[in-house]
Design brief:
Helices cover 68% and strands 9% of the residues. It is of the alpha+beta class and 289 residues long. The two termini are 32 Å apart.
């Protein structure tokens, strides 16, 4: 009990001697750990999003100019009999302009004074759920119909995420490894600097026969404090950001989830381990020197 109290007092004394350095170290460690937590959470979120099947895919088929009503009706009839299509809606150019005004605002310079005749007539096509994976094939088929000028389709956010998941995972993994290295180096240099500042004190304790527990204990405890308190602050910040996104970005409602107690525990344990590892490495290098 006495040893533990002594080590804790020594740790507090070391930190009081460099309060601003300790504060900056704590903020930097918490910030890096927050980034690590957010990166891992983002990778998990991306994986969940990539597994969600697309609910709707909207295909817009723009018509050639100066088509007669009979020609437009025939195209609509041909589209309606395609098995993969759930619904077909004719959208005149004027209606398209009205939609743009609703999306962008009446005073937006992109549409202010725009002539409705500039926008072509189009068909808005909704695919059936079972044919979502055949969107590109259907676009090619529709493009070949007489009277169709251009076909575009929007796969939706989750479909784009699914297409880019492998690249996101590779980049995310590299960021995670870089942040782990950063966390280890922060602890390493902080503890090493603290040991160098107290070299004479450590040598005096060695001369009077103090064991390793007294010599390195304060630095191990200091690193543990950075790890535990920094991880708690990182989890609080991450939780607040998740709550904000959940409240303000409806598109993520189906995939956003609060941090579970298991994840929180793992973050704290990981921060504790990386802090102790950094401190032990700093202590060994100082002894070797």
């Amino acid at each position: 009990m006495y040893k533990s109290v002594y080590i804790f007092k020594q740790m507090l004394r070391h930190m009081r001697r460099r309060p601003y350095g300790s504060l900056v170290m704590f903020i930097a460690y918490s910030f890096a750990l927050t980034q690590l937590t957010l990166t891992v959470y983002t990778l998990t979120l991306t994986q969940s999003a990539s597994l969600i099947p697309a609910s709707t895919i909207t295909v817009v088929a723009y018509l050639e100019k100066d088509l007669t009503e009979v020609s437009i009706r025939k195209i609509q009839e041909r589209l309606a009999v395609i098995e993969a299509i759930s619904s077909v809606k004719f959208v005149p150019g004027r209606s398209g302009l009205e939609r743009m005004r609703q999306w962008l605002g009446e005073d937006n310079p992109l549409i202010k004074g725009l002539d409705p005749k500039v926008l072509p007539d189009a068909f808005e096509i909704i695919l059936k759920q079972a044919y979502m994976h055949e969107a590109e094939k259907l676009v090619t088929e529709i493009s070949g119909l007489s009277g169709i000028d251009e076909v575009r389709y929007n796969k939706g956010l989750f479909a784009h995420i699914a297409d880019s998941y492998q690249k996101i995972r590779v980049v995310g993994t590299m960021v995670v490894l870089l942040l782990i290295l950063t966390l280890g180096l922060l602890i390493y240099f902080s503890i090493r600097l603290s040991i160098v500042r107290h070299t004479q004190e450590i040598e005096t304790l060695q001369l009077i026969g103090a064991d390793d527990f007294f010599l390195v204990g304060p630095y191990i405890v200091e690193s543990c404090m950075y790890g535990i308190l920094g991880s708690v602050l990182a989890l609080v910040i991450t939780g607040k950001l998740i709550d904000y996104l959940h409240a303000n970005v409806p598109v993520f409602f189906s995939v956003l989830a609060p941090l579970t107690s298991q994840v929180m525990f793992l973050v704290v344990v990981f921060a504790f381990c990386i802090s102790v590892a950094g401190a032990v490495f700093a202590i060994r290098t100082c002894r070797d020197a």
